[in-house]
Amino acid sequence: MEIGQTVSAPETKTGRLIGTVLRAQSGFFWVLTEQGLLECRLRGRLKKERQATDLVVIGDQVEVVLVGYGQGAIEAVLPRRSQLARRAAGSRGAYKEDVIVANVDQVLLVFACAKPEFTPRMLDRYLVICEHSELPAIIVATKIDLVGREVAESLFRPYEQIGYPVVYTSIISGEGIADLRDRLIGKISVVTGKSGVGKSSLLNAIQPGLNLRTGEVSERLTKGRHTTTVAELIPLTMPGGGYVADTPGIREIGLWKLPARDLAWCFREFRPFLRDCYFAGCTHLHEPDCAVRAAVERGEITPERYDSYVRLMNSDEEG
């Protein structure tokens, strides 16, 4: 189904279609159904529902009814099986939940080996968010040609040792591209990383012209509406399909409603020791007979990861 194809009439007795939200912009939603792509708005009664989270985001499965040529109305949102959310600024300086994408299968965390310099604490922050959201994370190391495979592996080995898959890639040599492409097949993936890590080049290597296609979709569907907030699922054309979430501002992710008592669980190598601390509710910062700190001293938890934990506990820094 080509992006931009519209619907003339649904083939359903109930008059309702189930579809996936591919794009959200300024109160308009583009929903891909079996019949094609519909430009939709929310039904009034749905907009009036007071919820603590976003009503509709990309990746949501929704029920729609046809209201005009190529146009629909979203009647209901089906329950989400997963979501990736961040902390966003709300009114009067308060914070609120900003759901980035719903029903996501995995998060690809793209970090360069050099240019820009690898920042472990930022990676740790992303991993905490993935663990808290119970989303599988795949670490993608880019620009390995700048440092060599041995150095690249030394940078990311601590994460492999605690169970995170790491895909080592080079746009120059093509190393790792086929492996990464295989990991995207049939899944909804969020690909994120700070500016300069080579994310765009990586996506174009996986599917040539992907970013150009993103621009074409944006231009065709925007229809002159002005906005600074656009989120989109980009279909993958390779055999087996899949989607890549392209969202604005995803590089700036703050922790949303993560209780301090749950932070240690989000460091997966801490988990075997959490029940062995002498004090219930141990913060693993200063209490005596702390099993986590003892594991750090024995070398079972790296000092760098423990330092990331301490920094997040003390200051909630941005990485």
Architecture overview:
This protein has 319 residues and is α/β, with parallel strands linked by helices. The protein folds into three domains: 16-77, Nucleic acid-binding proteins (OB fold (Dihydrolipoamide Acetyltransferase, E2P)), CATH 2.40.50; 100-246, P-loop containing nucleotide triphosphate hydrolases (Rossmann fold); 260-315, Orthogonal Bundle (Ribonucleotide Reductase Protein R1, domain 1), CATH 1.10.40. The protein is flat. Helix content is 26%, strand content 26%. It has helices spanning 44-48, 120-132, 149-161, 177-184, 199-206, 210-222, 260-263, 291-297, 303-315; strands at residues 16-25, 28-33, 36-42, 61-68, 71-77, 83-89, 95-102, 106-112, 137-142, 166-168, 188-192, 230-235, 243-246. Helix 2 packs across helix 9 (303-315). The model is unreliable at 1-13 and 212-228 (pLDDT under 50). The protein starts with 15 loop residues before the first strand and ends with a helix. The strands form two sheets. The protein has a five-stranded mixed barrel with strand order 1-2-3-5-4. Strands 6-7 form a two-stranded antiparallel ribbon.
